[in-house]
């Protein structure tokens, strides 16, 4: 466990403790940074300790409070231990953001008729098992919080059922059912459950677009706001809002945070 | 009032067409098969669970041979572990795996088998799920995660296989028809304070109302429809 040294004592989430999965880069890193900037103490978790350390360093540089913990969300024991370590360090857990995903690192379309059982589990153990493990580990602490938030990072792929990656689309579609049902199940505990479907430019996206400029131009033209989101300022801040008291009456929703891209709900 | 069951004009929708009903042991399948037979379809029912792509392709090919071809495939899948109402925090890893992963793989394999028998001439694939998936329900997190995953996979298949003339759609049915075991599950009531929903005053029945819609989706009249979701709840939640 590595810890940044300072504390942000003000902001929408001052005094809250957050646990973010897949926070070693991309959208997860942006969310962790935004939560810390809003005053939360953040457990930065991911499969690679080194990248989590980098995220903690970035938060540290801004005076935020964070620790890095190596976690594979497909492993229930690792998730439970990491959650307990977080609670042991800061005394509480208020926010869990299940951002970890696998399977979006390929820009090559996958034929549905060729998908194997191994293909399914390679992605599903992170997405769906990760949801289960995080929910089960966090529940007692979110109940005790009084401000409990459970946020799942979905995808527009799950809304429209992308041809590009059927397994990823199915998993993200399943996230919708998970969130709607869990929000109803945990409402009695005062825990708010939501999903966001982000569209954000991450490093793999930028690499793909650099290699395929025509695709980039065509894709960007689909966004009414004319650009993809930034992990921290667009997606991370949306998560901050959902976790704050400003959104204390919003639950069970799947919210596209995508510059107006998806308006079909 | 026109009785949807006895409607003579509907009886011609699938005349001369071949339908395979693969619902993995869900009792709903037989009711739907009866309804499709009433529409003139030549029927083959597959009750076995598909544990692999090879299983599904073999079963589908055998069924198509038995029916002298295939035009319509109707599918639903939810293993017994998915058909229980219980809180998520007490769910075992084995039950989760069976409820969501094995059930989802059964659907993946079934779609692959359907592709095998339909991709040369086209046809209609209808996935059947619980309409409650559209709104969620406490105690049913695994089942409704599965159901929404199946619905999204249907859309991906519709996008990929449209070029083969394959159309895929989803039909939502009342939870008590999808799985009678869950007839007493506490599904959320629609927040309507006027006349009590559903608007039609009854919940659509599988053999009559649901089979009629599936038959229509398999007919030429629905040739422009794919990737769509039809919630047959009699006008309850009226969601998109």
Q: Notable features of this structure?
A:
heterodimer, A: 265 residues, alpha/beta, B: 240 residues
Describe the structure.
The complex is a heterodimer of chains A (265) and B (240). With 265 residues, chain A is an alpha/beta fold. Chain A is 47% helix and 14% strand. Chain A contains nine helices and eight strands. Chain A starts with a strand and ends in an 8-residue tail after the last strand. Chain A has helices at 26-37, 49-61, 76-90, 117-145, 156-160, 166-186, 203-211, 213-220, 231-243, and strands at residues 2-3, 17-20, 41-46, 65-70, 95-98, 149-153, 192-198, 254-257. In chain A, helix 1 (26-37) packs parallel to helix 2, helix 3 (76-90) packs parallel to helix 4 and helix 7 (203-211) crosses helix 8. Chain B is of the alpha/beta class and 240 residues long. Chain B contains six helices and six strands, in the order E-H-E-H-E-H-E-H-E-H-H-E. In chain B, strands 2-1-3-4-5-6 form a six-stranded parallel β-sheet, sandwiched between helices. In chain B, helix 1 packs across helix 6 (206-217) and helix 2 packs across helix 3. The radius of gyration of chain B is 17 Å and the shape is globular. The two termini of chain B are 27 Å apart. Mean pLDDT of chain B is 93; it is low at 1-9. Classes of the chains: A alpha/beta (265), B alpha/beta (240).
């Amino acid at each position: 466990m590595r810890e940044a040294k300072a504390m942000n004592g003000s902001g929408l989430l001052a005094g809250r403790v957050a646990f973010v999965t897949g926070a070693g880069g991309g959208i997860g890193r942006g969310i962790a940074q935004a939560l810390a900037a809003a005053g939360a103490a953040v457990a930065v978790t991911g499969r690679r300790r080194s990248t989590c350390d980098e995220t903690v360093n970035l938060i540290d540089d801004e005076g935020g409070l964070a620790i890095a913990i190596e976690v594979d969300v497909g492993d229930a024991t690792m998730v439970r231990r990491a959650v307990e370590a977080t609670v042991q360090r800061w005394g509480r857990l208020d926010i869990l953001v299940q951002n970890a995903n696998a399977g979006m690192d390929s820009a090559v379309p996958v034929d549905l008729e060729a998908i194997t059982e191994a293909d399914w589990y390679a992605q599903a153990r992170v997405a769906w098992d990760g949801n289960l493990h995080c929910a089960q580990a966090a529940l007692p602490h979110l109940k005790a919080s009084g401000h409990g938030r459970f946020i799942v990072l979905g995808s527009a792929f799950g809304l429209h059922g992308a041809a590009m990656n059927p397994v990823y689309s199915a998993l993200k579609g399943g996230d919708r059912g998970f969130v709607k049902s869990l929000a109803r199940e945990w409402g009695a505990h005062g825990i708010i459950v939501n999903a966001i479907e982000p569209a954000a430019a991450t490093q793999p996206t930028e690499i793909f677009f650099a290699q395929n400029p025509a695709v980039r131009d065509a894709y960007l033209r689909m966004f009414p706001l004319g650009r993809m989101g930034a992990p921290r300022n667009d997606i991370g801040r949306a998560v901050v809002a959902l976790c704050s008291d400003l959104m204390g009456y919003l639950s069970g929703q799947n919210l596209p945070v995508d510059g107006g891209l998806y308006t079909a709900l | 009032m026109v009785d949807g069951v006895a409607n003579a004009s509907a009886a011609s929708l699938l005349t001369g067409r071949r339908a395979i009903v693969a619902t993995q042991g869900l009792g709903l399948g037989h009711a739907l098969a009866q309804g499709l037979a009433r529409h003139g379809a030549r029927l083959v029912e597959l009750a076995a669970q598909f544990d692999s792509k090879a299983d599904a392709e073999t079963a589908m090919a055998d069924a198509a041979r038995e029916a002298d071809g295939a035009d319509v495939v109707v599918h639903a899948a939810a293993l017994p572990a998915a058909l229980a109402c219980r809180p998520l925090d007490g769910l075992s890893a084995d039950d989760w795996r069976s409820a969501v992963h094995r059930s989802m793989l059964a659907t993946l394999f079934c779609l692959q088998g359907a592709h095998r028998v339909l991709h040369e001439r086209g046809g209609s694939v209808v996935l059947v799920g619980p309409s409650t998936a559209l709104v969620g329900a406490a105690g049913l997190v695994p089942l409704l995660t599965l159901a929404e995953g199946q619905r999204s996979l249907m859309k991906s298949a519709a996008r990929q296989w449209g070029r083969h003339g394959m159309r895929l759609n989803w039909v939502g049915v009342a939870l008590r028809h999808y799985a009678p075991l869950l007839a007493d599950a506490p599904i959320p009531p629609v927040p309507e304070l006027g006349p009590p929903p559903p608007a039609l005053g009854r919940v659509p029945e599988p053999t009559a109302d649901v089979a009629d819609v599936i038959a229509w989706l398999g007919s030429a009249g629905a040739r422009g429809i794919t990737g769509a979701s039809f919630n047959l709840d009699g006008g309850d939640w009226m969601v998109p």
